[in-house]
Batch of 3 targets.
Target 1
Amino acid sequence: MAASLRRPSFTTCSSPTDTDDEGVRGTCEDASICKRFAVSIGYWQDPYIQHLVRLSKERKAPEINRGYFARVHGVSQLTKAFLRKTECNCQILNLGAGMDTTFWMLKDEDLLPRKYFEIDFPMIPHPLKLQSLPDQFLLKLPSLLAFTDGHMLDSTRYAIIGADLRDIADLEEKLKKCNMSTQLPTLLIAECVLVYMTPEQSANLLKWAANSFEAAMFINYEQVNMGDRFGQIMIENLRRRQCDLAGVETCKSLESQRERLLSSGWESASAIDMMEVYSRLPRAEVIRIEALEFLDEMELLEQLMQHYCLCWATKGGSELGR
C-alpha cells in the first residue's frame, strides 16, 4: 500500500500551442471554481472537490449554480445508466477532464468501470490531484503501477493522460500505453470541449471514437442556439478573455448537434437543451435546490439553459443510451 501512496512529481513545459490555448484552460478553471462554490452551498455532495479547487470569494449567481446542478445531474445520470447497462464491464474516457472528480464519486458508489481514463492538455495540472488529495482518499485508489512521465499516470483502474485531443495519433498511442481496450463497451464524455476545436478537429475526434470501439456511447455537453443575440453576447464575452469558440458553427441548434454526431459515424443521436434537463429533474431535488437561494428572474435562467445542451450518441447497441 505504501507504493500506492507515493506522491508523484510532475513536470511542466511550455510551447507556442500552450500559449495559444491559455484562454481555453482558463475556462476549465472557471468551471471548477463554479462547481466548488455550488457544492459549498449545498447543491450536491462532493467531498473531493474542496481539496482540488479553491473556494471563490465571489458569490456565484443563482442561475449559474442551478445550471451547474443540472449539468452535473444530467451527465451523471447518463453515465450511471451506461455503467449499469454494461454491469461496469466497460471503460470510460473523460475528455478534457480538468479537475473532475467523477472517478472518486463512482468509486464511493461501487460503480467503477474496468478502467477510467482522464485526458486533458498536458499543461492542465490534473495529475496534481494525487498531490492534493488527503491520504485517506488515496487509500481508495487501486495500486499504482507506473508514473510513465510528467504528464501520464497509469494504474489498474485509473489513468491520467496529458494529451492534445486535436492530435488523434498521439492520443491513441498514449491511451494504448495505458491499456485502453477497443473490445470493451466504452463511454466517452466531453463537457465544453468540442466547441473549442474547429469543426474539422472535433469531427476527427468523433469519427475516431465511433470507429475505434465495437460498442460505445458519446456524451457531449456544450453550447447550443448560438446564432441569436444571447449567444452572440456569450461569444463576445469569451473573446474579451482571449478565448475563441472555434467550433461554434456546429452549435447552431439541437438538430446541428445531432447531425454532427450522425455524420461522424454514430448510429443514433439525441440532443436536448438544459431547460429540458431541468424540467426532468426529480421534483424533490428541484424543491430542495430552489430553497437554497432566491432567484430574482426565472427568465434569465431559462435563457441560459436554452443555450446549453446535453447530447448523446451510441453505436453497437442503441440500448446504451436509454
Note: The chain is about 40% helix and 15% strand.
Target 2
Amino acid sequence: MSRPQGGRIQVPDDLREILLEFTISYLLEQPGDVINYAVEFFTRLQNNRTTTIVRGPSAGTPDESIISDEEEPPVARFNNRRKSVFAETYDPEEDDSDEGAPAVFPKSDAQRARLAEAVRGILLFRSLDAQQMQQVLDAMFEKRSEPGEYVIRQGDDGDNFYVIENGVFDVLVTGDDGVEKVVHTYEGSGSFGELALMYNMPRAASVRAQSPGALWAMDRHTFRRILLKSAFKKRKLYEELLDKVPMLKALQSYERANLADALLPRTLIDGELIIRQGDTADGMYFVEDGSISIRIARDDGNEHEIKRLGKGDYFGELALVTHKPRAASAYAIGPTKVAFLDVETFERLLGPCMEIMKRNIDDYEEQLVKLFGDKSNLTDVR
C-alpha cells in the first residue's frame, strides 16, 4: 500500500465507524474475552451484511417493533440505518469539564425507584455501575404528553429514550399498505426507544398518547458521555494502580491497558471476607484503596494474620498459579476498594508475569515457616 505524501495514512470513514461501533459495543457489554467477542461481533456483521430486517404490523410486542433483538450485533441490526452516532466525535480525554456532569433533574425517591426498575433489564444499562446508574437517573428529564400526541413517529430520527411515569400509550406500526395499526399498548409503565442511545436511526414504530401522561427522557449524547467518560476514568485509574505493581513491569504498556479494562471494581466493608481458605480460586485482586488482612487457620481453628496489604498490593494470584485451593483467607480492614481479575482473563493477560509469581511462592513459604515452624503441610498461602 502506498503511503500518502507527508507520511500520514488517512483512516477510511467506514473503517473508523466500524471500529468505533465495536469499541462502544465492547464497553457496553463488557465480555470476559475481547478476542472471542471480536470474532463473534465481526462474524455476525459479515453474515448479516446483506440481511434486511423488516418490521411490520405483525410485531407482537413493542420490543419487536421498536427494540431490536439483543442477539444481533449493533451494526447489523438495520441494513438501511442512518449513520451511527458513534461517528459523532466525543473524546473523553479532551473533556476536562468538572466530572462531565450533566444537568440534574429533580425526582422523588419513588420516581427514582421506578426509573431504576424500568431500565434494569435493558441491555445498554446492564454494564453500568451504581455511580453511572445514578448519573443516568439524574440526567433524565420530564416530558408531558396530551391525548393524541405522538411522542415518537415511525421514520423520524431517534433522539431520546423514554420511561413512562404514568399514562396510556399506543405503539403503532405503518405497514406496506400505508395503514397504521396498534401493535401494543403501555398502561402506566414501560420504556421504549433505547436504540436512540446508540444510533441516529429512523424509528421503527410510532408511540402515541392515549391519555394525559408523563415520561422521563434521556438523550443519546448524555448517555454516551456518561458511559465513555466513566470508562475512560476507570482505565486511567487502574492504569495508575497497575503501574505501581512491580510484578506487572514485565507487561508492555498495551498489555497493562488491556488488563485495566478487564478489572472489575468491588467496594468492601470492614471485616468483609473476600476469599476463604479452602475455596476454589476464581481470580485475583488488586488493592485500590484501604487494607487487606491475609490470615491462615491453624489446627486449633484460630486464624492468624500472616500479612497486611495496602494500596498497590495484590493477592489471590498464587492459587491461580499453583491450581490449588485457597490456602488462606483475606479480609477487608476498614472501608476498602479492590479490583477483581477473573481466572480466564488472568491466564490470558498475565502469561508474561507467571514466572515472577511462581518465584513469590518461596517468599510466602518462608514467612509461614517463621510463623508456624513447619513447612510440611504448606502449599499456597493465598
Note: DSSP finds eleven helices and 14 strands in the chain.
Target 3
Amino acid sequence: MAPEPAPGRTMVPLVPALVMLGLVAGAHGDSKPVFIKVPEDQTGLSGGVASFVCQATGEPKPRITWMKKGKKVSSQRFEVIEFDDGAGSVLRIQPLRVQRDEAIYECTATNSLGEINTSAKLSVLEEEQLPPGFPSIDMGPQLKVVEKARTATMLCAAGGNPDPEISWFKDFLPVDPAASNGRIKQLRSGALQIESSEESDQGKYECVATNSAGTRYSAPANLYVRGLAAWARSLMGIWSHPIRLLGVCACVCAHTGTLICV
C-alpha cells in the first residue's frame, strides 16, 4: 500500500517527475561539436597565400585546433586566427612553399562531450606549373580613406577559366556580408561595398579568386574610416609627399576618397 502523504504536503509521482527533470535538463543541456564550416581543398601559388576556415557549434563551445601530419601546426609562416570565441579558426599559410607546405591539414573541434575531425588538402605550384585558367587578379583593392558614415567600395576584378568566384578577407578573417544586416554587400563585379562605414570596418582587405584550377590572393589594402576632421588630416598626411613634389594643389572626393590633382 502506498504511504499516505503528510498533512499539508502533496506527493508527486516519481516517474513523471524524473521525466520532467530530464526534459528541463535536455532543454539546457550540453551537446557534442558539429561543424558548420569545414576547410576545402586548395591549390595555391608558391610565394602566395592559403587560408583554411573551420568552425563548429556545440555546448560548451568547442575549441578548434589544427594538425599537419599528426602534429600541431607550428611555423613562422603559419598563423592561426580565432573568431567566435575560439569556436571558429582560420589557418593562414604565407608565403607558400612547394613540397614543404603540401600536406593534409586536419581541423579538430573539441568540447567536454566529444571531438570531431575534418581535413583538407593543400597543393602548391610554381608559376611555370600553373594550369590554363588559373585565376588572375586583374584589379585588386587599393588603400582608401573614407569619411565615417559614407560608403566605401573596395574594388576587385579577376579572370580565369572557369570564371573565378571572388571572396574577401579582412584582417585575415573571412568577410560574411550576410552577417552585416545588408550594410556590407559584394557586388556582381566582385567589389565589396560597405555602406554607412564605421570605425570597426577599418582593416586590411584582400580579395580572393577561386576556381577549379586554384586560388589566388590579391595584395592587401588598408581601409581607414575617420571622422570628418581626422579624415581630412589623414588624406593630407598620406598625400603630402606627392603634393610637395608636384607643387600643385589637390582636392579629394569625399564620396570615394580619390585624390584629384588640379
Note: Residues 131-228 form a domain with the Immunoglobulin-like fold (CATH 2.60.40.10).
